[in-house]
Protein backbone atom coordinates (compact mmCIF):
# COMPACT_ATOMS: atom_id res chain seq x y z
CA UNK A 1 0.00 0.00 0.00
CA UNK A 2 1.57 3.29 -1.12
CA UNK A 3 2.16 5.79 1.66
CA UNK A 4 1.32 3.35 4.45
CA UNK A 5 3.89 1.98 6.90
CA UNK A 6 4.30 -1.83 6.84
CA UNK A 7 2.94 -2.34 10.37
CA UNK A 8 -0.22 -0.34 9.65
CA UNK A 9 -0.74 -2.04 6.31
CA UNK A 10 -0.53 -5.50 7.88
CA UNK A 11 -2.74 -4.48 10.81
CA UNK A 12 -5.34 -3.10 8.39
CA UNK A 13 -5.48 -6.33 6.39
CA UNK A 14 -5.85 -8.44 9.53
CA UNK A 15 -8.61 -6.23 10.94
CA UNK A 16 -10.40 -6.36 7.60
CA UNK A 17 -10.33 -10.17 7.65
CA UNK A 18 -11.62 -10.23 11.23
CA UNK A 19 -14.40 -7.81 10.29
CA UNK A 20 -15.39 -10.07 7.40
CA UNK A 21 -15.20 -13.17 9.64
CA UNK A 22 -12.38 -14.52 7.48
CA UNK A 23 -10.12 -15.33 10.41
CA UNK A 24 -9.31 -14.81 14.07
CA UNK A 25 -6.77 -12.31 15.34
CA UNK A 26 -4.73 -14.83 17.33
CA UNK A 27 -4.11 -16.93 14.20
CA UNK A 28 -3.79 -14.06 11.70
CA UNK A 29 -1.06 -12.43 13.79
CA UNK A 30 1.13 -15.47 13.15
CA UNK A 31 0.75 -15.41 9.37
CA UNK A 32 3.84 -14.95 7.13
CA UNK A 33 3.10 -11.27 6.46
CA UNK A 34 3.54 -10.54 10.17
CA UNK A 35 6.62 -12.75 10.51
CA UNK A 36 8.35 -10.80 7.73
CA UNK A 37 8.07 -7.54 9.68
CA UNK A 38 10.92 -6.25 11.82
CA UNK A 39 10.57 -6.92 15.54
CA UNK A 40 9.55 -3.30 16.14
CA UNK A 41 6.95 -3.33 13.35
CA UNK A 42 5.65 -6.72 14.46
CA UNK A 43 5.02 -5.34 17.95
CA UNK A 44 3.29 -2.27 16.51
CA UNK A 45 1.09 -4.35 14.19
CA UNK A 46 0.06 -6.57 17.09
CA UNK A 47 -0.71 -3.55 19.27
CA UNK A 48 -2.78 -1.95 16.51
CA UNK A 49 -4.81 -5.09 15.83
CA UNK A 50 -5.47 -6.08 19.42
CA UNK A 51 -5.99 -2.54 20.68
CA UNK A 52 -8.44 -1.67 17.91
CA UNK A 53 -10.45 -4.83 18.60
CA UNK A 54 -10.40 -4.27 22.38
CA UNK A 55 -11.68 -0.71 22.10
CA UNK A 56 -13.89 -1.19 19.03
CA UNK A 57 -17.17 -0.46 20.83
CA UNK A 58 -15.82 2.84 22.19
CA UNK A 59 -14.25 3.72 18.85
CA UNK A 60 -17.50 3.08 16.98
CA UNK A 61 -19.40 5.26 19.45
CA UNK A 62 -17.09 8.19 18.72
CA UNK A 63 -17.12 7.63 14.97
CA UNK A 64 -20.90 7.20 14.68
CA UNK A 65 -21.50 10.46 16.55
CA UNK A 66 -19.52 12.32 13.87
CA UNK A 67 -21.24 10.81 10.84
CA UNK A 68 -23.64 13.08 8.97
CA UNK A 69 -26.01 10.12 8.89
CA UNK A 70 -25.35 8.00 12.02
CA UNK A 71 -27.30 5.03 10.62
CA UNK A 72 -25.09 4.80 7.53
CA UNK A 73 -23.65 1.35 6.84
CA UNK A 74 -19.99 2.04 6.18
CA UNK A 75 -17.93 0.04 3.71
CA UNK A 76 -15.69 -2.34 5.72
CA UNK A 77 -12.56 -0.68 4.27
CA UNK A 78 -13.72 2.73 5.50
CA UNK A 79 -14.85 1.34 8.82
CA UNK A 80 -11.47 -0.27 9.55
CA UNK A 81 -9.54 2.80 8.38
CA UNK A 82 -11.57 4.94 10.79
CA UNK A 83 -11.20 2.55 13.72
CA UNK A 84 -7.47 2.12 13.17
CA UNK A 85 -6.92 5.88 13.01
CA UNK A 86 -9.16 6.62 15.98
CA UNK A 87 -7.42 4.01 18.12
CA UNK A 88 -4.04 5.57 17.48
CA UNK A 89 -5.33 9.07 18.22
CA UNK A 90 -7.12 8.13 21.43
CA UNK A 91 -5.07 5.34 22.97
CA UNK A 92 -1.47 5.55 21.69
CA UNK A 93 0.74 8.39 22.95
CA UNK A 94 3.77 7.99 20.68
CA UNK A 95 2.05 7.99 17.29
CA UNK A 96 2.14 11.40 15.57
CA UNK A 97 -1.29 12.76 14.70
CA UNK A 98 -0.29 13.33 11.08
CA UNK A 99 0.73 9.65 10.71
CA UNK A 100 -2.46 8.28 12.29
CA UNK A 101 -4.68 10.48 10.09
CA UNK A 102 -2.65 10.51 6.88
CA UNK A 103 -2.14 6.78 6.63
CA UNK A 104 -5.78 6.07 7.53
CA UNK A 105 -6.79 8.33 4.66
CA UNK A 106 -4.52 6.35 2.33
CA UNK A 107 -6.10 3.11 3.53
CA UNK A 108 -9.58 4.48 2.83
CA UNK A 109 -8.64 5.02 -0.81
CA UNK A 110 -8.99 1.26 -1.25
CA UNK A 111 -12.75 1.62 -1.56
CA UNK A 112 -14.66 2.57 -4.71
CA UNK A 113 -16.30 5.49 -2.88
CA UNK A 114 -14.42 8.56 -4.11
CA UNK A 115 -15.60 10.59 -1.11
CA UNK A 116 -14.38 8.05 1.50
CA UNK A 117 -10.87 9.45 1.95
CA UNK A 118 -12.20 12.95 2.56
CA UNK A 119 -14.72 11.68 5.09
CA UNK A 120 -12.06 9.70 6.97
CA UNK A 121 -9.82 12.77 7.04
CA UNK A 122 -12.59 15.00 8.39
CA UNK A 123 -13.78 12.58 11.08
CA UNK A 124 -10.30 11.74 12.35
CA UNK A 125 -9.36 15.42 12.56
CA UNK A 126 -12.42 15.98 14.74
CA UNK A 127 -11.50 12.99 16.94
CA UNK A 128 -7.94 14.31 17.26
CA UNK A 129 -9.38 17.52 18.73
CA UNK A 130 -11.52 15.65 21.27
CA UNK A 131 -10.40 14.80 24.83
CA UNK A 132 -8.87 11.36 25.27
CA UNK A 133 -10.72 8.79 27.42
CA UNK A 134 -10.79 9.88 31.06
CA UNK A 135 -10.32 8.10 34.37
CA UNK A 136 -12.52 5.09 35.11
CA UNK A 137 -12.56 5.26 38.91
CA UNK A 138 -15.77 5.45 40.89
CA UNK A 139 -17.89 3.33 38.56
CA UNK A 140 -21.03 2.08 40.30
CA UNK A 141 -23.39 1.35 37.39
CA UNK A 142 -23.21 -1.62 35.05
CA UNK A 143 -23.89 0.52 31.97
CA UNK A 144 -21.01 2.84 32.90
CA UNK A 145 -18.70 -0.14 33.39
CA UNK A 146 -19.59 -1.56 29.97
CA UNK A 147 -19.10 1.82 28.29
CA UNK A 148 -15.82 2.64 30.05
CA UNK A 149 -14.21 -0.66 29.08
CA UNK A 150 -15.81 -1.22 25.67
CA UNK A 151 -17.68 -4.44 26.51
CA UNK A 152 -21.22 -5.42 25.46
CA UNK A 153 -23.59 -4.34 28.21
CA UNK A 154 -25.47 -7.65 28.23
CA UNK A 155 -22.23 -9.51 28.98
CA UNK A 156 -21.16 -7.14 31.75
CA UNK A 157 -24.63 -7.42 33.31
CA UNK A 158 -24.14 -11.18 33.52
CA UNK A 159 -20.75 -10.82 35.18
CA UNK A 160 -22.06 -8.30 37.71
CA UNK A 161 -24.90 -10.68 38.53
CA UNK A 162 -22.66 -13.76 38.81
CA UNK A 163 -19.51 -12.29 40.36
CA UNK A 164 -20.35 -8.85 41.74
CA UNK A 165 -19.50 -5.37 40.46
CA UNK A 166 -15.90 -5.22 41.69
CA UNK A 167 -14.97 -8.58 40.20
CA UNK A 168 -16.69 -7.66 36.93
CA UNK A 169 -14.62 -4.47 36.94
CA UNK A 170 -11.41 -6.45 37.36
CA UNK A 171 -12.38 -8.77 34.50
CA UNK A 172 -13.09 -5.83 32.19
CA UNK A 173 -9.86 -4.06 33.14
CA UNK A 174 -7.87 -7.22 32.44
CA UNK A 175 -9.56 -7.73 29.07
CA UNK A 176 -8.36 -4.30 27.92
CA UNK A 177 -4.68 -5.01 28.56
CA UNK A 178 -2.29 -7.13 26.48
CA UNK A 179 -2.60 -10.71 27.72
CA UNK A 180 0.52 -11.89 29.55
CA UNK A 181 2.79 -14.28 27.70
CA UNK A 182 3.65 -17.47 29.59
CA UNK A 183 6.20 -20.09 28.62
CA UNK A 184 6.48 -23.66 29.80
CA UNK A 185 10.08 -24.70 30.47
CA UNK A 186 10.63 -28.01 28.68
CA UNK A 187 14.32 -28.54 29.50
CA UNK A 188 16.57 -27.78 32.46
CA UNK A 189 18.48 -25.15 30.53
CA UNK A 190 15.40 -23.52 28.99
CA UNK A 191 15.29 -20.52 31.31
CA UNK A 192 18.99 -19.79 30.86
CA UNK A 193 18.58 -20.11 27.10
CA UNK A 194 15.87 -17.46 27.10
CA UNK A 195 17.90 -15.15 29.32
CA UNK A 196 20.80 -15.43 26.89
CA UNK A 197 18.45 -14.29 24.12
CA UNK A 198 17.58 -11.15 26.14
CA UNK A 199 14.17 -12.43 27.26
CA UNK A 200 13.30 -11.21 30.75
CA UNK A 201 11.23 -13.53 32.92
CA UNK A 202 9.26 -13.63 36.15
CA UNK A 203 7.80 -16.63 38.03
CA UNK A 204 4.40 -17.95 37.00
CA UNK A 205 1.34 -17.50 39.18
CA UNK A 206 0.96 -21.16 40.11
CA UNK A 207 3.23 -23.62 38.33
CA UNK A 208 6.88 -24.32 39.07
CA UNK A 209 7.98 -24.77 35.46
CA UNK A 210 6.16 -21.73 34.06
CA UNK A 211 7.60 -18.26 33.54
CA UNK A 212 5.88 -15.02 32.62
CA UNK A 213 7.64 -12.99 29.94
CA UNK A 214 8.21 -9.43 31.13
CA UNK A 215 10.32 -8.23 28.19
CA UNK A 216 11.36 -9.54 24.79
CA UNK A 217 9.84 -11.40 21.85
CA UNK A 218 9.77 -15.13 22.65
CA UNK A 219 8.33 -15.98 19.24
CA UNK A 220 11.63 -15.03 17.63
CA UNK A 221 13.88 -17.08 19.94
CA UNK A 222 15.91 -20.17 19.17
CA UNK A 223 14.72 -21.62 22.48
CA UNK A 224 11.14 -21.69 21.16
CA UNK A 225 12.12 -23.01 17.75
CA UNK A 226 14.14 -25.91 19.17
CA UNK A 227 11.46 -26.93 21.68
CA UNK A 228 13.11 -25.82 24.91
CA UNK A 229 10.03 -23.74 25.72
CA UNK A 230 6.41 -23.65 24.62
CA UNK A 231 4.06 -20.65 24.73
CA UNK A 232 0.84 -21.47 26.58
CA UNK A 233 -1.42 -19.58 28.97
CA UNK A 234 -0.82 -20.66 32.55
CA UNK A 235 -4.50 -21.30 33.22
CA UNK A 236 -4.55 -23.71 30.28
CA UNK A 237 -1.49 -25.50 31.64
CA UNK A 238 -3.08 -25.75 35.07
CA UNK A 239 -6.10 -27.57 33.65
CA UNK A 240 -3.89 -30.21 32.03
CA UNK A 241 -1.85 -30.64 35.21
CA UNK A 242 -5.02 -31.26 37.22
CA UNK A 243 -6.24 -33.88 34.74
CA UNK A 244 -3.83 -36.43 36.22
CA UNK A 245 -2.54 -39.81 35.11
CA UNK A 246 -3.65 -42.82 33.11
CA UNK A 247 -2.49 -45.49 30.69
CA UNK A 248 -5.36 -45.10 28.21
CA UNK A 249 -6.11 -41.41 27.73
CA UNK A 250 -8.59 -39.57 25.53
CA UNK A 251 -8.30 -35.86 24.83
CA UNK A 252 -11.73 -35.38 23.33
CA UNK A 253 -11.43 -31.80 21.99
CA UNK A 254 -7.70 -31.55 21.64
CA UNK A 255 -6.72 -28.69 19.30
CA UNK A 256 -4.63 -26.57 19.49
CA UNK A 257 -2.78 -29.23 21.48
CA UNK A 258 -1.18 -27.55 24.48
CA UNK A 259 -3.09 -29.64 27.00
CA UNK A 260 -2.47 -32.82 24.97
CA UNK A 261 1.25 -32.08 25.12
CA UNK A 262 1.14 -31.83 28.92
CA UNK A 263 -0.87 -35.06 29.19
CA UNK A 264 1.81 -36.79 27.11
CA UNK A 265 4.60 -35.17 29.10
CA UNK A 266 3.12 -36.31 32.43
CA UNK A 267 2.13 -39.76 31.10
CA UNK A 268 5.10 -40.85 28.96
CA UNK A 269 4.05 -44.52 28.83
CA UNK A 270 0.38 -43.87 28.07
CA UNK A 271 -1.51 -44.48 24.86
CA UNK A 272 -3.22 -41.17 24.03
CA UNK A 273 -5.96 -40.50 21.48
CA UNK A 274 -6.29 -36.81 20.56
CA UNK A 275 -9.54 -35.96 18.76
CA UNK A 276 -10.74 -32.79 17.16
CA UNK A 277 -13.59 -31.92 14.82
CA UNK A 278 -11.50 -29.48 12.77
CA UNK A 279 -9.34 -31.09 10.10
CA UNK A 280 -7.18 -27.97 9.75
CA UNK A 281 -6.58 -27.52 13.48
CA UNK A 282 -5.90 -31.22 14.00
CA UNK A 283 -3.36 -31.26 11.16
CA UNK A 284 -1.60 -28.21 12.59
CA UNK A 285 -1.54 -29.81 16.04
CA UNK A 286 -0.17 -33.07 14.63
CA UNK A 287 2.56 -31.20 12.78
CA UNK A 288 3.66 -29.51 16.01
CA UNK A 289 3.51 -32.52 18.30
CA UNK A 290 4.57 -35.48 16.18
CA UNK A 291 8.23 -34.42 16.16
CA UNK A 292 8.46 -34.08 19.93
CA UNK A 293 9.84 -36.76 22.22
CA UNK A 294 6.31 -37.65 23.37
CA UNK A 295 4.68 -37.42 19.92
CA UNK A 296 4.89 -41.16 19.10
CA UNK A 297 2.51 -41.95 21.98
CA UNK A 298 -0.28 -39.80 20.52
CA UNK A 299 -2.82 -41.08 17.99
CA UNK A 300 -4.52 -38.18 16.18
CA UNK A 301 -8.13 -38.72 15.16
CA UNK A 302 -10.49 -36.48 13.20
CA UNK A 303 -13.79 -36.83 15.03
CA UNK A 304 -16.68 -34.92 16.55
CA UNK A 305 -16.64 -35.60 20.28
CA UNK A 306 -20.44 -35.34 20.39
CA UNK A 307 -20.85 -38.37 18.13
CA UNK A 308 -17.96 -40.62 19.16
CA UNK A 309 -18.70 -44.31 19.59
CA UNK A 310 -16.80 -45.26 22.73
CA UNK A 311 -16.32 -48.34 24.83
CA UNK A 312 -15.54 -47.91 28.55
CA UNK A 313 -11.78 -48.31 28.02
CA UNK A 314 -10.19 -45.04 29.17
CA UNK A 315 -8.92 -44.42 32.66
CA UNK A 316 -8.53 -40.70 31.94
CA UNK A 317 -10.49 -38.37 29.65
CA UNK A 318 -9.92 -34.66 29.24
CA UNK A 319 -12.96 -32.92 27.80
CA UNK A 320 -11.91 -29.32 27.16
CA UNK A 321 -15.14 -28.47 25.40
CA UNK A 322 -15.62 -25.86 22.66
CA UNK A 323 -17.17 -22.80 24.27
CA UNK A 324 -17.91 -19.10 23.97
CA UNK A 325 -14.40 -18.23 25.16
CA UNK A 326 -15.51 -15.36 27.41
CA UNK A 327 -12.58 -16.11 29.70
CA UNK A 328 -10.13 -15.21 26.92
CA UNK A 329 -11.23 -11.75 25.78
CA UNK A 330 -7.81 -10.23 26.50
CA UNK A 331 -6.32 -12.76 24.08
CA UNK A 332 -9.30 -12.98 21.67
CA UNK A 333 -10.97 -9.55 21.83
CA UNK A 334 -13.20 -10.01 18.78
CA UNK A 335 -15.26 -12.62 20.65
CA UNK A 336 -17.18 -9.80 22.37
CA UNK A 337 -18.29 -8.46 18.97
CA UNK A 338 -19.43 -11.80 17.59
CA UNK A 339 -21.08 -13.41 20.62
CA UNK A 340 -24.81 -13.04 21.17
CA UNK A 341 -26.82 -14.04 24.28
CA UNK A 342 -28.71 -16.75 22.41
CA UNK A 343 -25.42 -18.40 21.48
CA UNK A 344 -24.96 -19.61 25.07
CA UNK A 345 -27.95 -21.96 24.80
CA UNK A 346 -26.48 -23.48 21.63
CA UNK A 347 -23.14 -23.90 23.36
CA UNK A 348 -24.85 -25.54 26.34
CA UNK A 349 -26.67 -28.06 24.15
CA UNK A 350 -23.47 -29.02 22.32
CA UNK A 351 -21.43 -29.23 25.51
CA UNK A 352 -24.00 -31.50 27.15
CA UNK A 353 -23.93 -33.73 24.07
CA UNK A 354 -20.12 -33.89 24.13
CA UNK A 355 -19.77 -34.55 27.85
CA UNK A 356 -22.54 -37.12 27.89
CA UNK A 357 -20.90 -38.92 24.97
CA UNK A 358 -17.37 -39.06 26.39
CA UNK A 359 -18.64 -40.24 29.78
CA UNK A 360 -19.39 -43.49 27.97
CA UNK A 361 -15.66 -44.00 27.38
CA UNK A 362 -14.67 -44.02 31.06
CA UNK A 363 -13.96 -47.41 32.56
CA UNK A 364 -14.76 -48.26 36.17
CA UNK A 365 -12.37 -46.37 38.43
CA UNK A 366 -11.57 -43.85 35.66
CA UNK A 367 -11.75 -40.08 35.78
CA UNK A 368 -12.96 -37.33 33.46
CA UNK A 369 -11.99 -33.68 33.70
CA UNK A 370 -14.48 -31.34 32.06
CA UNK A 371 -13.20 -27.83 31.34
CA UNK A 372 -13.94 -24.67 29.37
CA UNK A 373 -12.43 -21.21 28.95
CA UNK A 374 -15.84 -19.63 29.52
CA UNK A 375 -17.04 -17.58 32.49
CA UNK A 376 -20.70 -18.43 31.88
CA UNK A 377 -22.55 -20.89 34.18
CA UNK A 378 -24.56 -22.31 31.25
CA UNK A 379 -21.32 -23.71 29.85
CA UNK A 380 -19.87 -24.85 33.15
CA UNK A 381 -21.77 -25.84 36.28
CA UNK A 382 -25.06 -26.35 34.46
CA UNK A 383 -23.52 -28.69 31.88
CA UNK A 384 -21.94 -30.84 34.59
CA UNK A 385 -25.16 -30.90 36.60
CA UNK A 386 -27.25 -31.94 33.59
CA UNK A 387 -24.93 -34.79 32.67
CA UNK A 388 -24.73 -36.08 36.22
CA UNK A 389 -28.53 -36.01 36.41
CA UNK A 390 -28.69 -38.20 33.29
CA UNK A 391 -26.51 -40.96 34.74
CA UNK A 392 -26.22 -42.54 38.15
CA UNK A 393 -22.85 -44.22 37.58
CA UNK A 394 -20.74 -41.02 37.97
CA UNK A 395 -19.99 -38.69 40.82
CA UNK A 396 -18.16 -35.40 41.10
CA UNK A 397 -14.93 -35.25 43.10
CA UNK A 398 -13.93 -31.99 44.75
CA UNK A 399 -10.86 -30.48 43.18
CA UNK A 400 -9.48 -29.44 46.57
CA UNK A 401 -7.75 -32.81 46.80
CA UNK A 402 -6.36 -32.51 43.28
CA UNK A 403 -4.77 -29.19 44.19
CA UNK A 404 -3.14 -30.94 47.13
CA UNK A 405 -2.02 -33.80 44.88
CA UNK A 406 -0.18 -31.61 42.38
CA UNK A 407 1.17 -29.40 45.16
CA UNK A 408 2.63 -32.50 46.82
CA UNK A 409 4.12 -33.59 43.50
CA UNK A 410 6.03 -30.33 43.21
CA UNK A 411 3.99 -29.07 40.25
CA UNK A 412 2.82 -25.96 42.15
CA UNK A 413 5.02 -23.52 44.00
CA UNK A 414 3.96 -22.71 47.58
CA UNK A 415 2.48 -19.28 46.84
CA UNK A 416 0.59 -20.62 43.83
CA UNK A 417 -0.89 -23.48 45.86
CA UNK A 418 -2.07 -21.02 48.52
CA UNK A 419 -3.65 -18.78 45.87
CA UNK A 420 -5.50 -21.70 44.29
CA UNK A 421 -6.78 -22.91 47.65
CA UNK A 422 -7.98 -19.44 48.64
CA UNK A 423 -9.45 -18.06 45.42
CA UNK A 424 -10.27 -20.66 42.76
CA UNK A 425 -12.30 -23.42 44.40
CA UNK A 426 -16.06 -22.96 44.13
CA UNK A 427 -18.43 -25.79 45.08
CA UNK A 428 -15.68 -28.33 44.48
CA UNK A 429 -14.89 -26.97 40.99
CA UNK A 430 -11.99 -24.80 39.85
CA UNK A 431 -12.57 -21.34 38.43
CA UNK A 432 -9.96 -18.80 37.41
CA UNK A 433 -11.12 -15.28 36.61
CA UNK A 434 -9.18 -12.79 34.46
CA UNK A 435 -8.09 -9.87 36.62
CA UNK A 436 -8.58 -11.83 39.82
CA UNK A 437 -5.91 -14.17 38.48
CA UNK A 438 -3.32 -13.06 35.93
CA UNK A 439 -4.38 -15.66 33.34
CA UNK A 440 -7.32 -16.61 31.15
CA UNK A 441 -10.59 -17.59 32.78
CA UNK A 442 -11.08 -21.35 33.08
CA UNK A 443 -13.57 -23.73 34.67
CA UNK A 444 -12.93 -27.36 35.56
CA UNK A 445 -14.89 -30.14 37.23
CA UNK A 446 -13.70 -33.70 37.92
CA UNK A 447 -16.05 -36.65 37.42
CA UNK A 448 -15.24 -40.24 38.34
CA UNK A 449 -16.87 -43.57 37.61
CA UNK A 450 -16.52 -45.55 40.84
CA UNK A 451 -14.99 -49.01 40.56
From TrEMBL:
Keywords: Methyltransferase, RNA-binding, S-adenosyl-L-methionine, Transferase
Family matches, as InterPro entries: MeTrfase_RsmB-F_NOP2_cat (IPR049560), MeTrfase_RsmB-F_NOP2_dom (IPR001678), NusB-like_sf (IPR035926), NusB_RsmB_TIM44 (IPR006027), RCMT (IPR023267), RsmB-like_ferredoxin (IPR054728), SAM-dependent_MTases_sf (IPR029063)
Top-level taxon in the UniProt lineage: Bacteria
Annotated ranges, domain SAM-dependent MTase RsmB/NOP-type: 157-450
SUPFAM superfamilies found in the cross-reference section: NusB-like, S-adenosyl-L-methionine-dependent methyltransferases
UniProt feature coiled coil, ranges: none
Amino-acid positions noted as binding S-adenosyl-L-methionine in the UniProt annotation, renumbered to this chain: 253-259, 276, 304, 320
Matching Pfam families: Methyltr_RsmB-F, NusB, RsmF-B_ferredox
Example of a GO MF term: RNA methyltransferase activity
Active site: 373 (nucleophile)
GO terms classed as biological process: regulation of DNA-templated transcription; RNA methylation
Assigned protein family: Belongs to the class I-like SAM-binding methyltransferase superfamily. RsmB/NOP family.
Protein's name according to its UniProt entry: Methyltransferase domain-containing protein
Gene source species: Alloacidobacterium dinghuense
